[in-house]
Amino acid sequence: MKATVHVFLKPGVLDVQGKAVESALHGLGWPDVKDVRVGRVLTFDLPGSDTAAGEAEVKAMCEKLLANTVIESYRIEVA
Amino acid sequence: MKAAVIVFPGSNCDRDCKVAIERSTGATVDMVWHGDTALPDGLDLIVLPGGFSYGDYLRCGAMAALSPVMTEVIAAAGRGVATVGICNGFQILCEARLLPGALLRNEGLKYVCKPVALEVTNAQTRFTAAYQGRREVTMTVGNGEGNFFADEATLDRLEGEGQVVFRYLDNPNGSSRDIAGIINEGGNVLGMMPHPDRAFEIDLGSADGALLFQSALASA
Fold first, then answer.
1. How many A/B residue pairs have CB atoms within 8 Å?
2. pLDDT of B178 higher than 90
3. Which CATH number is B163's domain given?
4. How far is residue B101 CA from its own chain's centroid?
């Protein structure tokens, strides 16, 4: 099973990197860009797992290490 | 008196902390490697130093919080041993959930390295008793991710319960409510971004940090 985990700062948590990128895009001629968020994507293999059991494992990994749920939310894709 | 400084791969203030504690208090200081599974007996103080543990990979302090030695640090903190996390150590304490909140990227995106004036918001803690009512102290900050964040309810609780120990007089990094340092509900775990270990002798620009280590050990 292949897993992809998307981690982003929660809405309402200031994303200063997103703000900086947004400002740069405005300066480069895309003034309409808004709400840029910079996140993190992790991909990995979890051999031998079916997707239902595997997804539960990946969720546990997110809660334990991959995301800090005080400030971040995550989204899991499995295939 | 006996203290331990935990050394993670990438810690860079571990020696500073050892020298600062020794010279400020005369305590014996053991260096404890992150992979150890036991702490020395009879510790009065545990310090998690500043630096870039595990290269700040994933999130500052995230990997260090899961180090083998942290199981023992969490147990010792639970028994009431005075525990201080400075800078990266504060980030580690938050990641380990020994303290609430998290440290975000600085609001201005810049690494900030300079002396800062701090308000001693709570001088009744075991870490600040030696300030004896002094309202303002100076220590140096050096961080890129020192912007303290917690949800509004948590911030209200921290303020209401006297858990805010230090505030910036001129906020250098966007920290919520100017918070520079907090303690846990039990009053024995302190996390702070400014470095008392860089302010323990007047030749360093300030000796105010020495009082913090003296308070911590006097309370043990």
1. 36
2. yes
3. 3.40.50.880
4. 14
